[in-house]
Specification:
Strand content of chain B: 15-25%
Shape of chain B: globular
Number of strands of chain B: 14
CATH topology of the largest domain in chain A: Rossmann fold
Low-confidence stretches of chain B: none
Number of domains of chain B: 1
Strand content of chain A: 25-35%
Largest interface: A-B, 39 and 46 residues
CATH architecture of chain B: Alpha-Beta Barrel
Oligomer: heterodimer
Mean pLDDT of chain A: 96
CATH superfamily of chain B: Aldolase class I
CATH topology of chain B: TIM Barrel
Largest sheet of chain A: 7 strands, mixed
Structural class of chain B: alpha/beta
Low-confidence stretches of chain A: none
Radius of gyration of chain A: 17 Å
Strand order of the largest sheet of chain A: 10-9-8-7-11-12-13
Order of helices and strands of chain B: EEEHEEEHEHEHHEHEEEHEHEHHH
Helix content of chain B: 25-40%
Number of domains of chain A: 2
Largest sheet of chain B: 8 strands, parallel, barrel
Mean pLDDT of chain B: 95
Distance between the termini of chain A: 34 Å
């Protein structure tokens, strides 16, 4: 599949560093799948779909900065949707989102809500201004926020907030956020023997995006984040490289 | 599963079956290569490794066209120094691990060979079609091919395979140069130069503007190259280019391939190795043939 053209219809400033771009096409995706976004002449990067017709970008590099500065009428190339996406299951579920990691979890919350699932959302960010989709999530269930600086909600990391819940009353956990946050959440679920009812959406460096090149494979399973993932069950990740290291663009291991 | 009927010896390497993972596909990490071993490959070839870390070309670096895959990865690799750990992990897969290597001169090839002691063989990448100073930039010159092959052969204590580019007027000339340099086998073919353009904007799609085409579209080209190399050379020819079914593997062997490499087909079928091997076994048994009966059969048919 070669990139299809998508025209930007709307740009929404979500936080000081995060923007949502909505385009004129709706890839036929399930929550948690991603698209390869081609900013012509610059780069192509993987982005989770945060909306049926939209992506949510944190300004962290050349490509994402160019994307963040796009205006309605500008166009990009899209390949996808790719990856496995989340498996929708559970009657009483917890969504744990950190920073821009909330992006793939928003369409998940919408779909689970349509199924009548009872949802608790734990939303974390560095500071209150960086909380992503707080209002949108609050329409799907009970929400609790945590900020590193205490500017809103629980003061501290999101696992501290998890501690205030009876985790055994949930039958599925959906998690996406910074690597070390996901590792901490996984370890906490493992302490409660709940890792087998959890799904984590991973980030790794992608080149091809379709499971051919091997840039994004994780240790020790050799699974491809772009094709076998990006969503993995917690028990696959328990003894994995998650939270220990990742590989850079050359394939070299970089410790967290 | 291991079947004696499928076991082969190739340049001194014992293999459970004649299917090999091609270079550049899922060969970045040891764990990934082990996974391919579990999926039934008889041997694996790693991602091409160089003397210094390379980031590769900007994305998009690979797109799936209706006729095959078009890529310009740009030889991303962490250098042989960083790759040793991955190689050690890959060897836990208990099948031969062939390290694909690239360089711009004899000295670089030899430095890499000396730095990767665990390799069961080396495949010299003299054929990458989209790199400025490596690959086909050296692999289209028979004098350089012979010189580099000889240097590698003198340095290495394990077999040397030479992977050839089809982007030349006569691939046999290059294959003969590799053979004169002492190659234990040639591997044919690497990707064919190609390009795709985004019709919405006019931009070339690949970050490198052009790249190499692989997959079903290039299989007849590969079959002809293998056929011609088999006729001209006394060393084994390893076939690669668009094999995705057992019939493709048999065809390539009839053209003269002693074994086949599989790459692009993994894109939508991770079980391609075991599927091909099981069907190939059935083919051989039901016709009461052994592998040697079909290698180069197309030549014998015409001579009769």
């Amino acid at each position: 599949m070669i990139p299809v053209n998508a025209i930007i219809k709307e740009v929404i400033k979500e936080t000081p560093t995060i923007s949502t771009l909505k385009f004129d096409i709706k890839p036929d995706a399930i929550p948690g799948q991603f698209v390869m976004v081609w900013i012509r002449g610059v780069d192509e990067i993987p982005m989770a779909l945060s909306h049926p017709n939209g992506i949510t970008v944190q300004n962290v590099g050349d490509a994402s900065e160019t994307l963040s500065n796009m205006e309605p009428g500008d166009s990009i190339g899209l390949r996808g949707p790719f990856g496995n996406g989340f498996e929708l299951s559970g009657q009483r579920i917890m969504i744990i989102a950190g920073g821009v990691g909330a992006a793939p979890l928003l369409p998940l919350a919408h779909q689970l809500r349509l199924k009548g699932t009872k949802i608790s959302i734990l939303l974390g960010a560095k500071t209150s201004k960086e909380l992503l989709f707080e209002e949108q999530f609050s329409r799907s269930g009970e929400i609790n926020v945590a900020t590193d600086d205490g500017s809103k909600g629980y003061h501290g990391v999101i696992t501290g907030l998890m501690d205030t819940y009876d985790l055994n009353s949930f039958d599925m956990f959906y998690v996406c956020g910074p690597e070390m946050m996901m590792r901490a959440v996984l370890d906490m679920l493992h302490t409660n023997s709940l890792e087998s009812i959890s799904q984590f959406s991973l980030h790794r460096y992608f080149k091809c995006g379709i499971g051919v090149c091997g840039s994004c494979t994780i240790d020790p399973s050799g699974l491809r984040v772009c094709k076998d993932g990006p969503v993995f069950c917690g028990n696959i990740l328990l003894n994995s490289e998650l939270g220990k290291y990742h590989r850079d663009v050359t394939g070299k291991k970089i410790m967290f | 599963m291991t079947y004696p009927e499928l076991s082969i010896e190739l340049t001194g390497l014992e293999m459970n079956n004649p299917t090999i993972l091609a270079a550049g596909i899922l060969g970045t990490t040891g764990a990934s290569l082990k996974r391919i071993a579990s999926a039934g490959a008889g041997a694996v070839v790693t991602k091409s490794i160089g003397a210094i870390p390379e980031q590769g070309h900007p994305n998009p670096s690979l797109v799936a066209l209706e006729c095959g895959l078009l890529n310009a990865m740009g030889l991303p690799n962490p250098s042989y120094k960083e790759f040793n750990d991955e190689l050690m992990t890959a060897k836990e897969g208990d099948i031969p691990v062939i390290v694909s290597i690239f360089g711009s001169c004899c000295e670089e090839f030899c430095e890499i060979i000396e730095g990767l002691e665990g390799a069961d063989a080396f495949e010299l990448n003299l054929s990458c079609p989209h790199s400025q100073q490596y690959g086909a930039a050296v692999g289209t010159d028979p004098v350089l091919v012979e010189k580099i092959t000889r240097a590698a052969k003198t340095t290495a204590s394990v077999p040397i395979w030479v992977k050839l580019t089809p982007n030349v007027t006569d691939i046999v000339t290059i294959g003969e140069a590799a053979s004169r340099g002492g190659a234990d086998a040639v591997v044919a073919i690497n990707t064919i130069r190609g390009m795709a353009i985004d019709i919405y904007s006019g931009y070339p799609i690949l970050g490198n503007l052009y790249g190499g085409l692989s997959g079903a579209a290039i299989r007849p080209v590969a079959v002809k190259c293998i056929h011609d190399l088999y006729r001209a050379l006394d060393i084994p020819v390893i076939g690669v280019g668009g094999v995705s079914r057992w019939q493709d593997a048999v065809e390539m062997m009839m053209a003269g391939a002693s074994a086949v490499q599989i790459g692009s087909a993994i894109y939508d079928n991770f079980t391609v190795f075991s599927e091909i091997n099981e069907a190939f076994l059935t083919y051989l048994i039901s016709r009461d043939l052994i592998i040697d009966d079909i290698i180069g059969l197309a030549h014998r048919r015409v001579e009769q």
